[in-house]
Amino acid sequence: MKRILVVEDEDDIASVLVDYLQHAGYQAERASDGEQALARMLQSPPDLTLLDIMLPRLDGIEVLRRARLRTASPVIMITARIEEVDRLLGLELGADDYICKPFSPREVVARVRAVLRRSATDDTTPPALARLLLDDTHWRASLDGVALNLTRLEFRLLQALSRQPGRIFSRAQLLDLAYDDTADVTERAVDSHVKNLRRKLAAAAPGDDWIRSVYGVGFAFEDARA
Ligand code: CA
After folding, report:
1. Do 98 and 176 reside in the same domain of the chain?
2. Ligand 1 centroid from CA 148, angstroms
3. How large is the average pLDDT for residues 17-30?
4. Angle subtended at Cα 201 by Cα 209 and Cα 159, rounded to the nearest 5 degrees
5. Do 88 and 36 share a structural domain?
6. In angstroms, what is the span from residue 106 Cα to ligand 1's centroid?
7. How far is the CA of 35 from the centre of ligand 1 (A)?
8. How far is the CA of 55 from the centre of ligand 1 (A)?
9. What is the pTM (predicted TM-score) of this model?
10. Which residues have their alpha-adjacent CB atom under 5 A from ion ligand 1?
């Protein structure tokens, strides 16, 4: 049975999460402050940690920063403000996903399941990057030997995402990385370019999905079979 550590100081929220996780077949444990959470994460690492940011003694950001020095165990960060996510992404803490309050416990369970599934397959799948070739002198890309025919923008997006597999990028970060001049580009434009990019990748390697949407946050390049 997978062990999930719920780190949240608000009793109501924590007990709803623990209930839902137990119903979904997980062994759910709880920590109610940052120091306790860090000690648990290091002494007997859970299969996944749900980590709230606002915590007594040590905030969630500091907990993750310190935990990451010693463990790669998956972490989903919980934030009370959607605007905070961009700042968190900038810190590159290495969280596996982000959830904003208010959330539905059902959604949290679905995201827990998805992160566990990805981390379970991480070790066994061949590296995605071995299949993907990017030639930045000619702006050409191929996947499994099939040319992708990307626009220059799509190429730059793919390059930015695939250079750091697993890292979650916000739309604003991708705008900065892919465009020379972001003055009259909207973040929505990123969505449509990513959509086209996905379609081209899927045409070259049907059934694989290389770019993961992180709900309310942005995108990450993933091993397609994870
Ligand atoms: Ca809290």
Report:
1. no
2. 45
3. 96
4. 95
5. yes
6. 19
7. 13
8. 5
9. 0.70
10. 9, 52, 54
Domain that holds residue 65: 3-121
The Å distance, Cα 11 to ligand 1 centre, comes to 9
How remote is the CA of residue 102 from the centroid of ligand 1, in Å? 12
Query: pLDDT tier at 125 (50, 70, 90 boundaries)?
Result: very low
Task: Give the CATH number, domain containing residue 14.
Answer: 3.40.50.2300
36/131 same-domain check: no
pLDDT given at position 129? 64
CA of 126 to the centre of ligand 1 (A): 39
